[in-house]
Fold:
Amino acid sequence: MDELQVLNDMFRQFDLQFEIVSQSDNKIIFKSDNGDRCIITIELRKRQHSRHIYVNSLEKCAPYSGTEILEQIVQFGKEMNVDYITLSDKSSIGPFNLYVLEILTTGQSWYNRLGFYSSVHAQEVEFNTFVSQLPFETLMIYRKYLSHIQSFPQIYAEKNTLGNVKYAQSKVVQFSSFLEDFPQFHPEQSIRDILTSIKQQYLFKGSTETLTEEQTESLAALLNYLSLLIYYEGYESHLKRDIHWKKTGGARGKPRRKPRKTKKNRVKSRKTR
Structure:
């Protein structure tokens, strides 16, 4: 099977053309050859008993949505009979960390909604929902945040290392003027309520207002800080979606062999009639 030909045939409707930039016995790397427009890099990895795709990079390809592009990659995976697809979540909207924004406002990221999850997704949802409901003032002091998450001992231990504490405290300074830049919000409000209002008011379709330079800086700094507070064990490096391709027989679609008739199974067959 010519993998490159299949890939280009499937993406012709998007006016995208791929080329092979690297190839070995166990891996082929495809990259969209469209100049600076819509860079997509896909790795088809082959192992002895499995195959999978790693989406190395995925940029928005206007006028097509990221969802349309990713679903077409999934269809390519099915054509290649891969077992699963993995990717890293580097999604952003302008200077803002999109996966943090989505996790703390809806409970799941954009990739989660498309079926890509980490190995500890259930624990992530439980903890991140808890964090999103904390008052904003709690999050402005890292030690106070730590005192609230002691009911999650494993995560608490990870967040309470000396290095994490010092790093987080240094980040707080960068968004300390957040409530001054957004005077409509109050420290008693939950982080979910505040971020949801910001999404609707400034960031997404139908937004009625534009962020000032100061608001942009403090919001970007806040989201970067919040990325330290949520739980995403391995989240950025390994989101996975299993692929259920149609099996037409045995492994990799090979027809199954009929069992040879022996005296033993002939006798068994007669008994079941």
Notes: The first strand starts at residue 18 and ends at 23. Residues 248-259, 266-273 have pLDDT under 50 and may be disordered.
